[in-house]
């Protein structure tokens, strides 16, 4: 079995590190080493969730197969440290109590598939269901919809050292996924944290209204307000924001600059996605082995914010293949087509009005055994 990171500190160390992370850390020659130690402890605590996360994702994929759900996929990620810090500032909780340091996600074709998987995980998981929140039927105020389940890991033998690590599972439909990733993609494009409810109020209102449309499409509940009034407001906001065209520009801007041939006998265990806000480009590095992957993740997340000024957005992801990576994180690759098409349907405009000529792709390389020092680079906007 592959070696996974183990926790090396105490819960007291973790709580103190979390308290420090929730503050504004001032870097000086005198404080630098203390701050580095804070991040070492926090990173180690987060990284010690990698094994429970992997096992629970495996179970989640197994439940999809047992329910004979075709077209679904799963992914998992360790939470980005900047996101951890924002959460600690926003909630009255300790770092060791954060429930989504490790997260798994299942994206499924239909609402019926989602309900079947939720039921299976609720009754058949080997782990302890700690908390459950149904945001599919009762969306968050911003329109976010997904079903959240937090499990406490239960292991035997050598795995007992990971017991009670919390892993959050999000189960959602493709339509719900298209909404959530469109919010993030537009936020990246506009350099606004729309996922956290920050940014242009008209865009945020448009997403809220489209969530109500999706609620109606999936037959989950009656959306608030008259549909005629909602559609009229969506059309007006689209006109004001030029929203469909913005989404089309975003979608068309992505170009793969190189194509690599993968060796199916030596597939990566993880992928490290690194988005550069300055150049609007994305790099994807394959990672082999959990220990190497989490070390690369820790290294990629710049500790000193003054060094990069928030330039990079980095996340470590576990998926089955590169295509599932793009499906799991379309926001990084400019893929907002499904949400865009639904917006066009809601506004009743002619899709041809917004159609651009596709950008040319780079010619494929000859089929040869690859050098696995490769990386993908997507240039956008």
TrEMBL record:
Signal peptide: none annotated. InterPro entries: GTP_Pyrophosphokinase (IPR052366), NT_sf (IPR043519), RelA_SpoT (IPR007685). GO terms for biological process: guanosine tetraphosphate metabolic process. Coiled coil: none annotated. Residues 76-194 form the RelA/SpoT domain. This is RelA/SpoT domain-containing protein. It comes from Bradyrhizobium jicamae. The lineage of its organism: Bacteria, Pseudomonadati, Pseudomonadota, Alphaproteobacteria, Hyphomicrobiales.
């Amino acid at each position: 079995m592959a070696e996974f990171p183990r926790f090396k500190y105490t819960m007291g160390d973790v709580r103190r590190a979390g308290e420090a992370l929730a503050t504004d850390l001032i870097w000086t020659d005198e404080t630098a080493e203390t701050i580095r130690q804070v991040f070492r402890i926090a990173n180690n605590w987060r990284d010690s969730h990698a094994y429970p996360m992997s096992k629970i994702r495996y179970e989640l994929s197994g439940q999809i197969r047992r329910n004979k759900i075709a077209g679904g996929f799963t992914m998992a990620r360790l939470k980005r440290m900047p996101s951890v810090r924002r959460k600690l500032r926003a909630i009255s909780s300790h770092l060791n109590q954060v429930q989504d340091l490790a997260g798994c996600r299942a994206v499924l074709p239909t609402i019926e598939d989602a309900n079947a998987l939720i039921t299976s995980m609720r009754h058949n998981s080997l782990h302890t269901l700690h908390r459950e929140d149904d945001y599919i039927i009762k969306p968050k105020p911003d329109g976010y919809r997904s079903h959240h389940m937090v499990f406490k890991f239960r292991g035997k033998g050598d795995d007992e050292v990971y017991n009670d690590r919390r892993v959050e599972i999000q189960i959602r439909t493709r339509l719900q996924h298209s909404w959530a990733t469109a919010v993030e993609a537009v936020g990246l494009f506009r350099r606004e944290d729309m996922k956290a409810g920050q940014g242009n109020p008209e865009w945020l209102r448009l997403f809220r209204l489209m969530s109500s449309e999706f609620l109606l499409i999936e037959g989950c509940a009656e959306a608030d307000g008259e549909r005629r009034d909602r559609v009229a407001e969506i059309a007006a906001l689209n006109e004001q924001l030029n929203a469909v065209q913005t989404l089309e520009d975003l979608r068309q801007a992505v170009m793969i600059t190189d194509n690599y041939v993968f060796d199916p006998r030596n597939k990566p265990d993880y992928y490290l996605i690194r988005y550069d806000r300055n150049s609007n480009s994305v790099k994807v590095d394959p990672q082999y082995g959990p220990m190497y992957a989490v070390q690369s993740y820790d290294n990629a997340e710049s500790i000193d914010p003054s060094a990069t000024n928030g330039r990079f957005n980095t996340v470590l992801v576990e998926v089955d293949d590169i295509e599932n990576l793009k499906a799991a994180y379309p926001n990084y690759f400019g893929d907002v087509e499904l949400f865009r098409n639904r917006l066009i349907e809601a506004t009743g405009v002619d899709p041809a009005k917004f159609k651009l000529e596709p950008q040319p792709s780079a010619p494929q390389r000859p089929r040869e055994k690859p050098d696995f020092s490769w990386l993908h680079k997507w240039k956008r906007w």
